[in-house]
């Protein structure tokens, strides 16, 4: 093993929404920052796919296998590259609703109350929207919480195929609102991400070092187990050891928890900072169903998502529990998550020639229905160790997730189908669909994962304190979506970015630095 004797103040593991945002926050302090990313820079042509290639199996899968509840292997939809999963997300950056931070009563139970309320998050939401150059319009959504400042840019216009649909949705008494989007306004790389607005800005400072193809495999503590004294990483088949005053994990909710579990030692026999037995537990991801209006309208298959509907977020006329969020998928030839959910287009991708699939995609419109779930300690990730017949030891990463809050999600889907059928009867240029293929996103779709290192005040029931520092190890922090106590119906991305800025303020104070 090569010992890197460079003295670092901070090591950040991961470059996505959490790690990339934190890196740019800390970079101006002059503190010596090392960023470790297991992937490399993603080529522009791979980031901005807009053809049937998005339906080809395994293009956007991690080069590894996890194992589901039944012990069956799967390749997760994870992006190991500079910028993390933000390189393949749809760039929609929504705030959680103010009530999402409270104890929310779902039909299946009550969510935990967050220790920090919307008022605590609001300044950081605003700062994250400024950093990520969000284009939006807050006033049109009645569920949108109060903003202390407008979005930095006006909302993007709906495409020609979507504009008449939005007008018809409004005519039904609903409140379609422009989706807040992170955009660079660069023709070759239009969507904002954690590489563009995080890592690239951080690397302008000479005190910041980025190492790619660097997979962190273990964290080492001192003898008392109170401090991380070594970060072991494999870089191009060679093992290295790094050291810093502060270590921050931002590997994603699954991988950060897996790394801490795999770094168990005598002082932390069940995984680092796992005295609560909550590490790896309470894995959550929103229920997501894609609905296809097959043959509804001619389009180029490449338009951006632009409209969201939250009229059913907190319930409906005959249902008093939260149901969730609706948004259009954008063109079906560029929605990477859509490509992993096998309704008609993904099924036909294995049967039709590319030209036929393209024609079908260019006549269809897609919608996402998203519903939050409740934390469940039995939904978790853990390492399963086995011994093979030849005595060789091996380990598998088990990812066990049983969905809950299913009735609320079903109601949202069927309620939206009612809306679609009504508007197709009257909307100009929209053909009626005889069928509406739909499918829930499978376990492989892990982009919205959260909750495996819960934040809280009580060390007996949480892994992290309110600063996202582990209760048991003084210099170990986690800034990806692991910290979420509950899972809302919107993407966690903006909340992760806002939290990274919030934790950044704390670390600047801890390091006696100035930004």
UniProtKB/TrEMBL annotation:
Any one Pfam family match given in the protein's UniProt record, by short name = GMC_oxred_C
List, separated by semicolons, the cofactors it needs: FAD
User: From what superkingdom does this record's organism come?
Assistant: Bacteria
Start and end residues of each Glucose-methanol-choline oxidoreductase N-terminal domain: 79-284
Give all residue intervals belonging to the Glucose-methanol-choline oxidoreductase C-terminal domain: 375-500
Q: Which InterPro entries match?
A: FAD/NAD-bd_sf, GMC_OxRdtase_N, GMC_OxRtase_C, P2Ox-like
Offer an example of a GO molecular function term for this protein. Answer: oxidoreductase activity, acting on CH-OH group of donors
Keywords (alphabetical) are: FAD, Flavoprotein, Oxidoreductase
Q: Does the keyword ATP-binding apply?
A: no
Whether ATP-binding counts among this entry's keywords is no
Q: Which PANTHER family match?
A: PYRANOSE 2-OXIDASE (PTHR42784)
Regarding protein family, the annotation reads: Belongs to the GMC oxidoreductase family.
This one is known as Flavoprotein
């Amino acid at each position: 093993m090569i010992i890197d004797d460079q003295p670092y103040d901070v090591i950040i593991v991961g470059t996505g929404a959490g790690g990339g945002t934190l890196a740019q926050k800390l970079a101006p302090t002059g503190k010596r920052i090392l960023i470790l990313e297991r992937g490399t820079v993603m080529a522009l042509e791979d980031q901005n796919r807009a053809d049937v290639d998005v339906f080809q199996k395994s293009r956007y899968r991690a080069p590894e296998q996890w194992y589901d509840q039944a012990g069956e292997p799967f390749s997760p939809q994870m992006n190991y590259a500079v910028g993390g999963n933000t390189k393949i997300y749809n760039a929609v950056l929504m705030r959680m609703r103010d009530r999402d931070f409270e104890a929310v009563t779902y039909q299946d139970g009550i969510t935990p109350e967050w220790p920090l309320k919307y008022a605590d998050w609001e300044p950081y939401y605003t700062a994250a929207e400024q950093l990520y150059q969000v284009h939006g319009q807050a006033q049109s959504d009645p569920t949108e919480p109060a903003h202390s400042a407008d979005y930095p840019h006006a909302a993007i216009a709906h495409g020609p195929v979507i504009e008449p649909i939005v007008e018809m949705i409004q005519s039904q008494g609903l409140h379609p609102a422009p989706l807040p989007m992170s955009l660079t306004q660069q023709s070759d790389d239009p969507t904002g991400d954690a590489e563009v607005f995080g890592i690239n800005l951080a690397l302008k400072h000479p005190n910041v070092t980025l190492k790619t193809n660097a997979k962190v495999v273990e964290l080492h503590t001192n003898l008392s187990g109170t401090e991380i004294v070594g970060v072991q990483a494999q870089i191009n088949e060679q093992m290295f050891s790094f050291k810093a005053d502060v270590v921050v994990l931002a590997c994603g909710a699954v991988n950060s928890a897996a790394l801490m579990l795999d770094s168990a030692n005598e002082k932390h026999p069940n995984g680092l900072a796992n005295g609560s037995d909550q590490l790896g537990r309470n894995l959550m991801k929103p229920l997501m169903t894609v609905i296809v209006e097959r043959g509804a309208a001619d389009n180029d298959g490449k338009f951006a998502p632009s409209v969201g509907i939250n009229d059913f977020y907190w319930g409906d006329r005959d249902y008093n529990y939260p149901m969730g969020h609706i948004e259009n998928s954008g063109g079906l030839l560029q929605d990477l998550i859509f490509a992993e959910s096998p309704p008609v287009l993904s099924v036909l991708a294995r049967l039709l020639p590319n030209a036929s699939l393209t024609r079908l995609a260019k006549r269809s419109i897609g919608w996402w229905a998203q519903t939050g779930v409740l934390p469940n300690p039995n939904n978790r990730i853990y390492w399963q160790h086995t011994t093979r017949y030849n005595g060789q030891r091996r380990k598998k990463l088990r990812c066990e997730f049983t969905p809950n809050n299913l009735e609320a999600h079903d109601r949202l889907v069927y309620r939206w189908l009612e809306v679609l059928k009504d508007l197709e009867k009257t909307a100009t240029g929209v053909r009626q669909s005889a069928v509406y293929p739909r499918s829930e996103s499978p376990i492989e779709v892990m982009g919205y994962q959260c909750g495996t290192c819960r934040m809280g005040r009580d060390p007996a029931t949480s892994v992290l304190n309110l600063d996202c520092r582990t209760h048991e190890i003084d210099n170990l922090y986690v800034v990806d979506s692991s910290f979420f106590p509950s899972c809302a119906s919107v993407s966690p991305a903006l909340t992760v970015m806002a939290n990274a800025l919030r934790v950044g303020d704390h670390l600047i104070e801890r390091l006696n630095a100035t930004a």
